[in-house]
């Protein structure tokens, strides 16, 4: 961690954005704590006032890269959150404090307490430690159900965003050298088969978080909060539900080598989600029959990550193929 003096331009900007009582006396320095992220992200700590905030920074200003444009979008999404019914002090997302583009600060949010889903997943691998994860997943299901029941303009789900993302992942994995010729041919065949299958299970579009990965949810004292809203949008609810399912499968297989170790957690999560929603007779069959496609997308997406071993990435691709093929036989 590093420290910035009280007179630093960034510190002056922060004290202007934060409530004065929270930031403490204007004479104090600020501690900077880097956080793991694909972009520059810092936690700001004001020792004298015990305040904390999290800032996300542009890589260049004016913003030009896709990473910077996504930060602009995330700011707009947080700003819009109240209109979606996500604000109003509900504690479902961090409170937006502002931004200061002159210093590269694209987004400033309140710092929320808690542990993320990845922490609960790692803990659940210890004997007798599954219950905190199960309770967390039930709370997460309720949070996503709340997102999915926000009032949005009526429109029907189209299969093409998911199919285009499938094509994008296939091309990326091919460029990385992870796909054999057999893999490429099998994935192309699956794409055609699933395009027809989508039409049998219609649904309306809902407000989705859009990036339901383990580090994007915090759990604290019986509540769950969503972070990183850059992909918040109106879309198919399975972008959230199957993303969580894919991450649960990955969490067990990566840490233990057991591809089926997360099945109980996935089942509990889906059951809690369906329980949290008003009765919809068509929703459960749709989730059951289309989840394999979106879950395979999540596995193919994870397989792009270079921090994973080559053999494990190949195993994820093989599992995605099995998921697609078995799903068509349901």
Please, could you describe this protein's structure?
The chain folds into 2 domains: 2-110, 2-Layer Sandwich (Phosphorylase Kinase, domain 1), CATH 3.30.200; 115-328, Aminoglycoside phosphotransferase (APH), C-terminal lobe (Aminoglycoside 3'-phosphotransferase, Chain: A, domain 2), CATH 3.90.1200. The longest helix has 20 residues, at 283-302. By secondary structure, it is an alpha+beta fold. Helix 8 runs antiparallel to helix 9 (263-276). 48% of the residues lie in helices and 15% in strands. It has 11 helices and 11 strands. The strands form 3 sheets. Strands 1-2-3-4-6-5 form a 6-stranded antiparallel beta sheet, sandwiched between helices.
CATH topology of the largest domain: Aminoglycoside 3'-phosphotransferase, Chain: A, domain 2
Cα separation of the termini: 52 Å
- The radius of gyration computed from the alpha-carbon positions, rounded to a whole number of angstroms, is 21 Å
Fraction in beta strands: 5-15%
DSSP E strands, number: 11
Oligomer: single chain
Major sheet: 6 strands, antiparallel
- Low confidence ranges: none
CATH architecture annotation of the largest domain:
Alpha-Beta Complex
